[in-house]
């Protein structure tokens, strides 16, 4: 029965998903962050669970309900997300990095609220760890899937990330189109492996998540 086969695709596999933005504190009342509703990552978590996987969702600050039967850990900063991921990464079969991680953190978080100055101010930022790379470069990495949100050269930039980060797969989306991606309920993806390019047409994020997970399964089975 076709339905039953789909249901069992990831039976007893452990899948970890990062989702949402991270928040880098400036002082007790301010932060730096990225646009990200978390909807794509949460949709993937829901679908993976429906397909039989044991799902761990590491979520930045988003206002979304936890999908049924998914283990959720909430974090704020990129460093916290890195720590949460590595707590249980050794037991994961598949890692899907959907989070919009802040590339930089504020060098020195002020313990007190910064007061408005009469001149311009300068914030010094330092690089955050790359969570996805840290997983893909483990001695025994899980099957790794990255995302790439690009505003130009979508496919070539995504392919460069696939290679540089040593990923099994990357899903790229064009965020210059304001009706898709980010806070939208809809998205379209270009899914790349080292030997293939597949286009997933614009769709709501749940159906798109299902299409993506079918591609992940196909590639995972071959790896
Ligand atoms: N990613 C991550 N940790 C970071 C930055 C990115 O895990 N510190 C992951 C994202 O979750 C995504 C992939 O890496 O799956 C690509 O993120 P992206 O921001 O597109 O790539 P960067 O390598 O940060 O390059 P740039 O922002 O310059 O395009
Ligand atoms: Ca980035």
UniProtKB/TrEMBL annotation:
Its EC number is 4.1.1.36, 6.3.2.5. It catalyses: (R)-4'-phosphopantothenate + L-cysteine + CTP = N-[(R)-4-phosphopantothenoyl]-L-cysteine + CMP + diphosphate + H(+); N-[(R)-4-phosphopantothenoyl]-L-cysteine + H(+) = (R)-4'-phosphopantetheine + CO2. Residues 15-223 are annotated as: Phosphopantothenate--cysteine ligase. GO terms for molecular function: FMN binding; metal ion binding; phosphopantothenate--cysteine ligase activity; phosphopantothenoylcysteine decarboxylase activity. The keyword Lyase applies. GO terms for biological process: coenzyme A biosynthetic process; pantothenate catabolic process. Keywords: Decarboxylase, Flavoprotein, FMN, Ligase, Lyase, Magnesium, Metal-binding, Multifunctional enzyme. One of its GO terms (cellular component) is phosphopantothenoylcysteine decarboxylase complex. Binds 1 FMN per subunit. Residues 11-218 form the DNA/pantothenate metabolism flavoprotein C-terminal domain. Its cofactor is Mg(2+); FMN. Pathway: Cofactor biosynthesis; coenzyme A biosynthesis; CoA from (R)-pantothenate: step 2/5; Cofactor biosynthesis; coenzyme A biosynthesis; CoA from (R)-pantothenate: step 3/5. CTP binds at residues 103, 113, 129-132, 147, 161, 165. Catalyzes two steps in the biosynthesis of coenzyme A. In the first step cysteine is conjugated to 4'-phosphopantothenate to form 4-phosphopantothenoylcysteine, in the latter compound is decarboxylated to form 4'-phosphopantotheine. In the N-terminal section; belongs to the HFCD (homo-oligomeric flavin containing Cys decarboxylase) superfamily. This is Coenzyme A biosynthesis bifunctional protein CoaBC. The chain holds residues 181 to 403 of 403 of the full protein.
């Amino acid at each position: 029965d076709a339905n039953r086969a789909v249901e069992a695709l990831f039976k007893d596999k452990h899948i970890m998903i990062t989702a949402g933005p991270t928040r880098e504190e400036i002082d007790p009342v301010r932060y730096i962050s990225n646009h990200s509703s978390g909807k794509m990552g949460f949709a993937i978590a829901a679908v993976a669970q429906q397909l039989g996987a044991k799902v761990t969702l590491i979520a930045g600050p988003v206002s979304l309900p936890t999908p049924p039967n998914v283990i959720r850990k909430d974090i704020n900063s990129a460093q916290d997300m890195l720590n949460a991921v590595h707590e249980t990464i050794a037991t994961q079969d598949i890692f899907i990095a959907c989070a919009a991680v802040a590339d930089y953190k504020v060098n020195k978080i002020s313990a007190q609220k910064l007061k408005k100055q009469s001149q311009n101010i300068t914030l010094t930022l330092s690089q955050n760890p790359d969570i996805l790379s840290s997983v893909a470069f483990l001695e025994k990495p899980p099957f790794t899937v990255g995302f790439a949100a690009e505003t130009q050269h979508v496919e070539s930039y995504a392919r460069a990330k696939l290679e540089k980060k040593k990923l099994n797969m990357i899903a790229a989306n064009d965020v210059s189109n304001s009706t898709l991606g980010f806070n939208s309920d809809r998205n379209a993806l270009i899914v790349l492996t080292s030997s293939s390019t597949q286009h997933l047409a614009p769709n709501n994020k749940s159906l798109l998540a299902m299409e993506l997970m079918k591609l992940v399964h196909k590639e995972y089975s071959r790896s």
